[in-house]
# Entry
Amino acid sequence: MEYFLHILVLIGIYTVLAVSLDLLVGQTGLLSIAHAGFYGLGAYTSALLAVRLGASFLISLVAGMAVAALVSLVVSFPSLRLHDDYFVIATFGCQMILFGIFNNWVSFTRGPLGIPAIPQPTIFGWNVRSRISFVLLTALLAVCSYLVVTLLARSPFGRVLRAIREDEVFAQSLGKNTLRFKVTAFAVSAALAASAGVVYAHYTTFIDPSSFTVTESILVISMVIIGGPDSTWGPLIGAAVLVTLPEALRLLGLPGSVAANLRQVFYGVSLVVIMMVRPRGLVGRYGFGR
Amino acid sequence: MGTQWGGEIRGHMLSQLIANGLIAGGTYALIALGFSLIYGVCRFFHFAHAAVIVCAGYLVFALSSRLGVPLSLAVVLSIVLSSAMGALLERAIYRPLRAKHASSLMLLVASLGIYVVVQNVISVVFGDDPHALLSGLPTQGISMFGARITFIQVIILIVTLLLYSATGFFIAHTSAGRTIRAVASDSELARIVGIDANRVMLLVFALGSGLAAAAGILISFNVELTPTMGFDALLMGVVAAIVGGIASVPGALLGGFLVGLSQHLGVWKLPSQWQDAIVFVILVLFLVLRPQGILGTPVRSAAV
# Structure
């Protein structure tokens, strides 16, 4: 039962990551490989605040999201002037730099040793300790991110994002300052990813850089693409499928390390097959330009 | 990715760092050249280039250490097979995608998928532990300007320059090279004058993958063989290609040496674990200030 609840918490966290990335990939048509970097930025900011300064969970959460949003501005103003492939490469560079900070700034982040003993959250007197309360917390966070992304997508703001996705020059010709819209979407997406990182850090009570690698970014991208970009349930479906898959393989008796590799083989194959057969993913509305 | 140095004196250390930088830079230049050629003709970022790099290294390992094939034959076989693998990827995956008018982002996502599959299959078959390709070959070095360079590193530099010049000659002076340049500069016009773009793409994939394979083998001779080494090397190659100017042949060489040198010279002033971060800072600076690279032509500002 505990194990099952653990899977639900992971699905919740990855749903937040996938929903927030879908705001970029699905709504705006921007493929970012820096998502794990912002996820890690949230986790590290809140972990360091909680461990070094004893900050409360809510303060850590707000701080983690704010730091990620600020860093995203530094990243996005220059890189969002670039198009398609070049933007992907720029986010790649940012991911590598963020990972480098987590891994190499040993005096601040303790590098590969990671940060242990992160306190479990207390929210307005609610002590989140048991697995079931973490399921509630992540579910709450997932619902909130869904609301944020869905409301944004349905608002005039979201319509401009989709206009940018379909034809940026056209959106500009209507007088829209497309850079401002893209920068805002990027900041919201980064802040939501950071919130997932905050909850992750306070759930596992230990973080190290290996949770925030490029591979993790590609995993979240796969969730969005398998579920389907620009869709309501796509991110949830994608997160659920890719989180449960290695667990299912493990139940079949495969050793953990092989199961991890097989999961990656599965999502690699899915990416190729989906691009060839159904670029809109399982339930998506956007197929990367065609 | 770094090699060790032996000199204690500062001046010696500097020349050692320059030597290490040039050797690493040479392999990056080969990767950048292959990547650039493919990008120039096909106009998308072929991340599965990393899969070719790592496969080439493991093919040599499997053939020579496991099956007892002589090393030189194993190297040749590996380059041929890897080149065929690149061509097969183009034929079996990218061409059908292109036939469906896939955008460059879709091709990029598919290539990420291919890479993930290959890397994990290698992990399952050979394990995640590093393997050494060179156990029997002599590793004693020669000294130049206070830097200690091993025999294999001299070979790396020579092979790099030879392959680079041969490729440059092929592109500039043969008729096949001319068709590559034609499709790269204007694929529509090339089609009108009767050039079969699909055949040219197959050709650049075979050629580019061969270069990547050579680089992968040289790197695994110099450092070691791990399932993720292809990706690390590819990222350096991509940065080299962008810094030098993508789709530019001299740009690939210039970018490769620039990336290799800044990676290794950075160690002079900064702790060595930052050497990769230095490269990505350079990448971001170039993307922001001069996205076309040093020798490239300006990028189109609007997607048409």
